[in-house]
Amino acid sequence: MNTMDLIKKYESGMIDIRRHIHANPELSNEEFKTTELIREKLTEYGIEICEIGMKTGVVGLLKGGKPGKTVAIREDIDALPMSELTGLPFASKVENVCHSCGHDIHTTTLLFCAKVLSELREELCGNVLFLFQPAEERGSGAKQLVECKFYEVSRPDVFVGLHVSPEYPAGSIGLKRGPANASCDTFYIKVSGKGGHGAHPENCIDPIAISGYVLAQLQTVISRENHPVYPAVMTIGSIHGGKAANVIPDFVEMSGTLRSLNADSRAKMQEAIERITKASAEAMRGHAEVTWEKGMPPLVNDVEVIEDLQAAAEKTIGADHVITVQNPSLGSEDFSYLFPEYAPGAQFRLGSGNDIDPNTRHGLHNSRNVFDDSCLAAGTAVLVQYVRDFLR
Ligand code: NI
């Protein structure tokens, strides 16, 4: 039976489950009920649940009728700490928690991949590993999978997955060859001076004036130090210091994010941020410290895996629903901890917008964005077809 026909018969069930998950979102590392639901459904579908010691999240394994390679499909399950303002009947019932990044759709897609592939078990030559990953929004869930040695369950030969994209229409997918998402590092700067009376700067070392200088000089990291062919972003997102108009404080704290698509350029910019911050502060008699939370590497899609996903999409949703994505995003995605480190892989974009409801186009992490859940069938079909072809 062709894949889309198999999936279409479950479409209303998929929508029900997705709306249930949507109404009951859970924050990173607190996805207890979602985990329970996934375990319950996988058991119902006849998928083996592998106990690897994760607090939340689930790893499931399907063994095909004949031995062969292993495909890992990974999706994330957590929601964001923000309120939902869509006014939908199935809007979040939890205050200040919302599936505004579409991970409810990701979770549902993977559940139905498991259901349909389990029905096709006999035709598959090899295994399918279902990775329901927690805490993507914290950038730590994929690392947890690694720490719990997910690869010992069945070593993957390839990773695939999807992420919703309101900018593309529901029923279509977007494919990006090569670099698709950026690395993500957070840095914290503490500029120390010497506080005192605002009327006597000569007796003080003013960390506010120093911070203004540091902030301006840091703009040269991207413009003067990074190779211009490698896209990068540095944003200082917070700056705090001082309480009164006539008092020079002792210190100022700032924090920022650094994004890059290239490992070398990332390392050079990290070095430049430290050097410029410290030297700028010292030039003005102050002192600065930089501390890092180095995050995920860039997500680089394997070209061959993308070609195979394209073939799977052409068979299921049709070539006219396959969009070639030209530009990478400087947003990040912690799937990059898994590939290419453990096997090649690729993630495609699943369109979730439409031209009827403008609320489907606000974008990810937006309280008002509505996801068109007719995208569920398309996403599930492409993944299932990919697995059928890979494990033929
Ligand atoms: Ni997301």
Total count of strands: 16
What oligomerization state is this entry in? single chain
Q: Which range best describes the helical content: under 10%, 10-25%, 25-40%, 40-55%, 55-70% or over 70%?
A: 25-40%
Name the strands of the widest sheet in spatial order. Answer: 1-2-4-3-5-16-6-15
First-last Cα distance: 14 Å
Radius of gyration: 24 Å
Structural class: alpha/beta
Shape: elongated
> What order do the helices and strands follow?
HHHEEEHEHEEEEEHEEEHEEHEEH
Average of the residue pLDDT scores: 97
Low-pLDDT stretches: none
Chemical compounds bound to the protein? nickel (II) ion
Beta-strand percent range: 25-35%
Number of helices: 9
Largest sheet composition: 8 strands, mixed
Description:
The chain has 392 residues and is of the alpha/beta class. It is 32% helix and 27% strand. The protein contains nine helices and 16 strands. The chain has helices spanning 3-8, 11-23, 32-45, 103-119, 141-147, 207-225, 263-283, 303-316, 375-390; strands spanning 48-50, 58-63, 66-76, 125-133, 158-169, 173-175, 178-181, 183-192, 196-197, 232-240, 247-248, 251-260, 287-294, 299-301, 322-324, 345-353. An eight-stranded mixed sheet has the order 1-2-4-3-5-16-6-15, sandwiched between helices. The protein has a four-stranded antiparallel sheet with strand order 10-12-8-13, with helices on one face. A two-stranded antiparallel sheet has the order 7-14. A hairpin with a 7-residue loop joins strand 1 (48-50) and strand 2 (58-63). Helix 6 (207-225) runs antiparallel to helix 7. The chain binds nickel (II) ion.
